[in-house]
Amino acid sequence: MGKVLMKGNEVIAEAAVHAGCKYYFGYPITPQSELVAYMAKRLPEVGGLFLQAESEVAAINMVYGAASAGVRVMTSSSSPGVSLKQEGISYLVGAELPAVIINVMRGGPGLGSIQPSQSDYFQATKGGGHGDYQIPVFAPATLQEIVDLMQDAFDIADRYRTPVYILGDGMLGQMMEPVEFTERKAAELPPKDWATTGTRGDGGPKITNSLRLDPDDLEKHNNHLQEKYSKIKENEVRFENYLTEDADYIVVAYGTVSRIAKNAIKKAREKGIKVGMIRPISLWPFPEKPFYETRENVKAYLTVEMSAGQMVEDVRLAVNGYKPVHFYGRTGGMVPSQEDILAEIIKMAGGDQ
Amino acid sequence: MGKVLMKGNEVIAEAAVHAGCKYYFGYPITPQSELVAYMAKRLPEVGGLFLQAESEVAAINMVYGAASAGVRVMTSSSSPGVSLKQEGISYLVGAELPAVIINVMRGGPGLGSIQPSQSDYFQATKGGGHGDYQIPVFAPATLQEIVDLMQDAFDIADRYRTPVYILGDGMLGQMMEPVEFTERKAAELPPKDWATTGTRGDGGPKITNSLRLDPDDLEKHNNHLQEKYSKIKENEVRFENYLTEDADYIVVAYGTVSRIAKNAIKKAREKGIKVGMIRPISLWPFPEKPFYETRENVKAYLTVEMSAGQMVEDVRLAVNGYKPVHFYGRTGGMVPSQEDILAEIIKMAGGDQ
Amino acid sequence: MGKVLMKGNEVIAEAAVHAGCKYYFGYPITPQSELVAYMAKRLPEVGGLFLQAESEVAAINMVYGAASAGVRVMTSSSSPGVSLKQEGISYLVGAELPAVIINVMRGGPGLGSIQPSQSDYFQATKGGGHGDYQIPVFAPATLQEIVDLMQDAFDIADRYRTPVYILGDGMLGQMMEPVEFTERKAAELPPKDWATTGTRGDGGPKITNSLRLDPDDLEKHNNHLQEKYSKIKENEVRFENYLTEDADYIVVAYGTVSRIAKNAIKKAREKGIKVGMIRPISLWPFPEKPFYETRENVKAYLTVEMSAGQMVEDVRLAVNGYKPVHFYGRTGGMVPSQEDILAEIIKMAGGDQ
Amino acid sequence: MGKVLMKGNEVIAEAAVHAGCKYYFGYPITPQSELVAYMAKRLPEVGGLFLQAESEVAAINMVYGAASAGVRVMTSSSSPGVSLKQEGISYLVGAELPAVIINVMRGGPGLGSIQPSQSDYFQATKGGGHGDYQIPVFAPATLQEIVDLMQDAFDIADRYRTPVYILGDGMLGQMMEPVEFTERKAAELPPKDWATTGTRGDGGPKITNSLRLDPDDLEKHNNHLQEKYSKIKENEVRFENYLTEDADYIVVAYGTVSRIAKNAIKKAREKGIKVGMIRPISLWPFPEKPFYETRENVKAYLTVEMSAGQMVEDVRLAVNGYKPVHFYGRTGGMVPSQEDILAEIIKMAGGDQ
Asked: Pyruvate:ferredoxin oxidoreductase core domain: which residues (chains A, B, C, D) (predicted)?
């Protein structure tokens, strides 16, 4: 099919369709409206269903229903809309239902702005909803990476029976880049014999439920979830190392910010500062290994986020006191510039080269 | 008035009334139903208003309205109900509105059980809703402490213009203890000249809003919030040190778990293990100082939670690699016993004394 | 207190306060927004409560709650908003709860226009909700009549334990006229010993409910309701006869249309046509008596409505074939002019005088 | 395909599928739950969509959306649930959208009972929602008649661009009878060139809307609706005459009550009373003609309903004073027995034969 030039929000939608997603439930909110509009038009073409629900609360509960029926289903929103879905997301986890949830983050808190942000990192990685749970969270940095991660996201959702987040930001949603939708071999996935599609003589009625009134039973279920999380940590960590081999300093950034950071790193290298980057692609499970491998040798880390400082906590946990961890952030829809980041690198490197 | 024997959920309610709370909006959920019932009866007696809303989403937005009018207002729920309020909580933060939010935590995720839990620590302290925000979170361990913290909670809410969480668990809500409602001198608080109660010639119309479409404006607002958070970190940290002065080992626990831990510590001391406890009372801002003061000298820390491990991250961040941080947790409504904790202390101390 | 010049929507609100209404739940909609705004400001001054609910569905259910507690409570809306309340209104009837419901009618169907209309006559008088029920419906024609009928409405609601409609239209809501709020002796009303305000040793718990699963029980309840309706028909019919004694022709009109019709009648009398008017003030129970008394002697009736023809059915039922019943109506927010009505009178009188 | 033995609620569902209905939105309520369950299973088999919405309000608005897209869509409920849909039904009318709405009536008012009833006649025929509108209402008396009327209902909905009611009762929904689903020639229907399925170069964007702020415009629209209603009155009246040719007395009954009445009429004929029956099949437009044709010759009419007396008003309007119109009704889920009706016939005939 070759490369096509598309807008980020449309790439998210088309990538989902390529990954076999046939059901979408959501409610429109800027800056991801093109995604919703694309799905409304596209899903009927592949025999699927688009439904704009009464509210975000309704939408996430429809996702629960569709996921229970064993189909590939997605919802999307932006920050305030995702907050409304927190109860439903916790229900998906409790009932072990696969689904993909897109958050095209905007500046907060509250209604905030409609400009790009990364300030929902904590909500996605630490459990915005209640209860002991984790959800795999992927943060693509380019439109092509969206295509590749989306297939993974649906596969991981099905393999581990879990919701999966794709975390983008307004910039990613609005930018245009050429992308290629390559067909890849379908993953080998366990049969969905738990789906509530009828008994067909294979045992009693199927139920998807998150209510476990007996605490002993619920703790067993939680232990089962923790074992699942261990397996995800083993198998599904994603990250990119960029010029880290000889690095004295390491920038940590994800999503679109990592692209700006790369340019700043190039400029810093031109000035003789040996700086590299660790780019977490999976935000949970957080890639600890590249930090374990570098924390002995580098002099300091600099986390750059479009937030007041959220991922930096995971960086500090991974570095565990070995070296200083600095932070630079912009909020409210403001995007760190190449110059900003370069200045922070220079400051970290102890002078104004 | 002397001491009266009361149930935890009722103490929360009466303490709020003593703190000047006259408005309550909520929706019932086990295990905090007695709180709702108490408020329904009590608030009209003090000229206040109780309203059971259509849903948790409606309730938190009514809290927004009442807080905008400058009155002391509270809502309460248990885990799934609190998840439904995440959007509204982020709106309260964005509009800088004072309110007190009670979460009597139950086992999760999803509907989970109705037994006690501490698994919403992350949601409360890291921002369950979207956007860069923090909310002061207090976790009382006794019914008397509820009374004292509630007055603080309402004062802090008003002083800093912020929602404040009180985090309890089902055990705390159901236990009975004698409590005393002492009158204390009213705190000196800034006038609520921002409240939307009419202009009265003091300038243009008052508006409470969290929408700031200009990212530059929103970033300024976020910087203002961060400055506020710095002040709260300076002034509002609460914790208890228990036998830490000579301790080789330190248990970290909050809420009802800390009471069980205390007994385990006594037993361990009888066995010659010099163990103490740091009990965070404010979960955010997290009390880092007692860790800074002990991390050089103690040999290890043990965090005990009714969760799969949440506060332990803040402990590890405060200890910052100086010493090992162990974890012991029960989930789903299961409560760690004194024997369990003692066994963990002995294990940490390197043997079976 | 003397006469004051006020707007219709405000008169409705103030009249309700004078009638002892202390609770209001609603959701704003044009053309009755001034009513909502007035209540928001006024009720706290008399120790009452105003609450803007999440939706019309929520509002009518809050009315159910307040009415259950035995207080005087009101809601108001305009046509589409009243449709949303139909389930709740049927619940009020089933549980025999007193409340006053204002409908300031606008043009329909659907969202329609925001101009005046009388097209919800059927909804109000025939049971817009499900089940066999009737609700007393009053239609004032002047602002002073609102004041007088409002006191009756609350008294009738309490006396018979029933919701009561006040039906206005956009014109009535927007017009200004001098009104006087005279104090009148409180009606003797039965005690509200059914209210769910606690048992106080006077028997078991009080419950307000509309569920009666045993059909025999439900039929008994329906028979009880029908007996109540018979009493209301006996005692609460309201109408005005205008120049009917010598009339050859009779115009039937209610609300603001009756005021225009009066002028047309004066003009017709000047032309020598002996025409009078029956003005139903209670739309249910419909005033049949003035028709029984005139149908032998008059030659024809002309019903004029701001609708496609609704009250005309009740006129035809009352006339019962004795004489022709003509109809003239305007819809969609268009108001019949004096000239229009005069032309219809002349046509009915058989020529062009 | 031959005759199959099925339950009434399932027949409604299967008949809709046979009539080309592919979309269903609803919310379950007794006594029509089998209908919902059947649709959930059946629609996916024909490439259609079943969706259980968040509430009845959500469901009817989804019907609006699907109807706008030009597909055949249905919703169903029982009395309280239908009341919740009144706003949405008025919107369908205003926007001239075709849809079929099933009401399997239960005893009311309020939650009432779950036993059969006919007490929503007024709601269906007089406009339960606001605004000047009428909806074709069909009331089948046998399961085979459901099959036949359903095809008509969808055709009429499309031909006139209007919602159409099918009014059943709990008895009809629960009874089992053999039915045959015969294929019949598709009706010639106008193309849905108004559907919002894209412009395709045939003019500007398509919009379905019920808001017409200009009253002159709205009145024109209402006149257009009234013309449509005239055509429906001309073409779509349905009724059955049973032994009316020589009748001295006529029973009027619809739906399941008419079946019991038929047996009572046979018994009365055995006793020498010449009694027949008019069975309205379309409740709106109400069949006036059989009354015009009989009111000169018969001695009296007896309307029998499972209500406190609703259709009897339309009977009285059609008889227009020519002859007495008696009424016998049971309410709350109680069903008139053959003996009851026979006794009423004998009473009407002036003695106890």
From this structure: 247-341
The CATH number corresponding to C240-349 among 3.40.50.280, 3.30.420.40, 3.40.50.920, 3.90.380.10 equals: 3.40.50.920
For A126, counting Cβ atoms within 10 Å of its Cβ (0-12 exposed, 13-18 middle, 19+ buried), the class is buried
Fold classification of B4-235 (topology level): Rossmann fold (3.40.50)
Residues of chain D with CATH 3.40.50.970: 4-235
Confirm whether the ipTM is greater than 0.85.
yes
Mean pLDDT of chain A: 95
The stretch A127-144 carries a mean pLDDT of 94
D205 and chain A in contact, CB less than 8 A: no
What pLDDT, in 10s, does the model give residues D332-342?
A: 999 999 999 99
B321 to A322: CB separation less than 8 angstroms, yes or no: yes
Nearest-Cα residue of chain D relative to residue C333: D215
Give yes or no for C343 touching B (CB within 8 A).
no
Q: Are residues D131 and C115, on separate chains, in Cβ contact within 8 Å? A: no
Answer yes or no: are the C-beta atoms of C329 and C252 closer than 8 Å. no
A128 touches chain B (CB under 8 A): yes
Write out the two tokens for D14: 């299967």
- Report the C-alpha gap between B324 and B248 in whole angstroms: 12
In this prediction, residue D184 has a pLDDT band, given cuts at 50, 70 and 90, of confident
Taking the C-alpha atoms of residue D212 and residue C113, their distance in angstroms, rounded to an integer, is: 5
- A116, pLDDT greater than 70: yes
The Cα–Cα gap between B3 and B12 comes to 15
Please report, to the nearest 10 degrees, the dihedral formed by the alpha carbons of residues B242, B244, B247, B252 taken in order.
70
**A52·D61 Cβ contact <8 A:** no
- Which of A78, A130, A306 has the highest number of chain B CBs within 10 A, making it the mutation to test binding with B? A130
Work out the pLDDT band at B182, boundaries 50, 70, 90: confident
Quick one: chain C helix, strand, coil %, rounded to 5? 40, 20, 40
Phi-psi region of A309 (alpha: psi -120 to 50; beta: other; left: phi over 0): left
Closest CA to A122 of A328, A326, A305: A305
Cα–Cα distance for residue pair C330/C309, rounded to 1 Å: 9
Considering only CB atoms, D210 lies closest to which of C110, C218, C222, namely: C110
Q: Model confidence over C82-138: pLDDT tens digits? A: 999 999 999 999 999 999 999 999 999 999 999 999 999 999 999 788 999 999 999
Rounded distance, CA C35 to CA C74, Å? 11
For residues B95 and B162, the answer to whether their CB atoms sit within 8 Å is no
pLDDT at position D224: 97
- Closest-CA residue of C relative to D123 is C128
**A30 touches D: beta carbon within 8 Å:** no
CB contact under 8 A, B51 and C62: yes
**A7-49 tens-digit pLDDT:** 999 999 999 999 999 999 999 999 999 999 999 999 999 999 9
Q: Where are the alpha helices (DSSP H) in chain C?
A: 8-18, 33-45, 56-68, 79-84, 86-94, 121-126, 143-160, 170-174, 215-235, 256-270, 289-294, 311-319, 338-348
CA atoms within 13 A on the CB side of D74: 31
CATH 3.40.50.920 segments of chain D: 240-349
pLDDT tens by residue, B257-306 = 999 999 999 999 999 999 999 999 999 999 999 999 999 999 999 999 99
Determine, for residues A83 and B332 on separate chains, whether the beta-carbon distance falls below 8 Å: no
